[in-house]
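Continuing the series of single-chain predictions for the mutant panel. This is the parent chain; the variants come on the following pages.
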Amino acid sequence: MPRSLAIILFVLTSLAIAQETPDYKNPALPIDHRAVDLLKRMTLEEKVDQLAGGRRRLAQVNSSNPEAAKIFQRMGDLYKNESTVNAHDAAIIRNDLQKFLIEKTRLGIPTIFMGEALHGYMAYGSTSFPIVLGLASTWDPKLINEVFTTAGDEMSAAGTKQAFTPVLDLARDPRWGRTEETYGEDPYLVARMGVAAITGLQGNTFPLIDEHHVMATAKHFAAHGQPEGGTNTAPANYSERTLRETFLVPFEAAVKEAHAGSVMASYNEIDGVPRTSTSGC
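Parent structure:
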């Protein structure tokens, strides 16, 4: 075969392979472009499934795929008994599921495993720090950053990549049962502590998050900490000025300064408008 013909065939083959690889799987392309390409290919059900930790995708193939059934059973046991499963074993189970999702599902994308880290990763063998209200009493953002750097590292080691924290609600009604989850009533203090917690969890390279960090979740957006009658999920009817000068301040800092990877909606209503139609955590 002439050399020139061989080169042409090589180029054509390379182009064909490149065309078969979707943009979202091409690491040479910008992250934003890859994300847009992936979202265009996903069904509504697949998008919702990503928000639920990938459980639905595995459940769908569970009945017809023995391998999936085995992994699904192990994952189910982990969710039920995470308080008794050490980080090593939990990581193995999650890694097996990720391998299955990447290699044997339609889009071949991993899921985002999620977990609680209110004052340390809520799992067996992890470090438990003082309650959040106690952490706020230190008035020490550097210390808070160190606390959540540790929490993020422990979560990532167990295969969890998203933390449902920090709580940025302003605790302005002592009857509210979740006061101890907050950094208090002052917008400035809550904002400073929130930024410190988020950067501790995520690191300083967002949107890239390395193997020692996880994505943070600023919650609950918004005006969740002063519900009517102190009842969780009760309405929060406040003027726009009050919202902007108090309740929204920590969230603005979380997004603009700390680049929080996600925000959880509150499950109340403000001025008669529901924040979300589902419950959260």
